[in-house]
Amino acid sequence: MGDAVGARFRRHRWLPQASAVVLLAALVTGFVLVRAERRESHNTDALARACGGVLPADAVRALLPDDEWWRARTGPGPRGLVSCGVGADRGELDVTATPVLDAPLKGVRIEQITGDPYEREPRWAEDHRRADVQVTVACPGGLPGYPRPVRSFRVHGSLSGETTGAAPRDAVAPAVAAVADGLRVEHRCGGAPVRPADVKPFTGGAGEAPDDPADADGKATPESCRWFRTADLGAGWKPTGERDRGATHPAARGCDTGALKGTQALGVTSASWWGELLPEVRTEYGRELAAAGQGTPPHADARSFTVAAWAEARCAEGPGLHRVSVTGSEKGGLADRADALLGRYLEAAHCRDSKSLGTVWQ
């Protein structure tokens, strides 16, 4: 009977071919299913490893091509936080966290504080401007491992590749929020959890230091110069008509202003330093501080005279050094003016526990 069945099978020539096709299809299907399961397992593992495992799985899966093998990346970012991502050839999600650092001052002298004060920021400090979305997180207790206090950090993220056209920019927000909140918890920053709604595209406003207020003609008084009034100099003194130069920084503030009385002109500068800048100020102005109060006379043949009054005082920012200088063509009464203006300056800043260090001629 078996021979008969075999004979009938052979007489139907299409049956062997059909059986081979069915078998091949089953093998291919099985291979595809096994490979898809392995890819799914691999991608799940990659997603669990990327960015320390904090990425929201569903939100990230919706951004990436599921028919490719994903690569996970986690490592240190600029200045010690994190740079991580996950993706494939056709699309990749990148998330980076950076500390928000105050650009270093070029120096602590008054002309440096009130002029072009900052060194150029490193390129990585501006990467968030080009990212899809970003968020800044406060960390009042400070981040460890930095020479100067760092009390906030920024996390930004972008989606690159072919998948960007199918997803809006804010689709990256859940991933950025997850990384930001993970760092917030890790560094014990406190505050409320970071939500996707907190993550926004960069607009050039949030987190940027505002300029000193200025009116339409650019002659508004900078905040650091508002303590000075020409009336403090006596009758007849008027503003010069030129714009005052002033600036306030995290550990210093300064002002360069002046006044006119007929043909006589006075230049007035004020400056305060506190916190981490104090050692550098004591070094930079070391000779001047050593000579303050010593009674050294000015140069007799000088065309103009400058005298500076120094004091130590505790203001809102903490203990600091304070300096007011006056420049004029006549030396008579100049030191007394500097002393009086220094008192007015400290009074306007609501300082206390002040100690005069004396005056010194330049």
Q: What's the end-to-end separation, in Å?
A: 124 Å
Shape: elongated
SS elements, strand count = 12
Q: Stretches where pLDDT falls below 50 for ≥5 residues?
A: 205-218
Helix content class = 25-40%
Biggest pleated sheet: 7 strands, antiparallel
Number of helices: 8
Strand percentage: 25-35%
Give the helix/strand class.
alpha+beta
Write down the overall mean pLDDT.
82
Rg, please?
34 Å
Order of helices and strands: HHHEEEHEEHEEEEHHEEHE
Task: Walk me through this protein's architecture.
With 362 residues, this protein is of the alpha+beta class. It has helices at residues 2-11, 14-49, 57-61, 110-114, 173-186, 278-284, 286-291, 334-348, and strands at 71-75, 82-88, 91-99, 133-138, 152-161, 238-239, 245-249, 252-261, 264-274, 305-315, 318-328, 352-361. The strands form two sheets. Strands 6, 7, 8, 9, 10, 11 and 12 form a seven-stranded antiparallel β-sheet that branches. Strands 1-2-3-5-4 form a five-stranded antiparallel β-sheet, with helices on one face. The N and C termini lie far apart (124 Å). 30% of the residues are buried. The model is unreliable at 205-218 (pLDDT under 50).
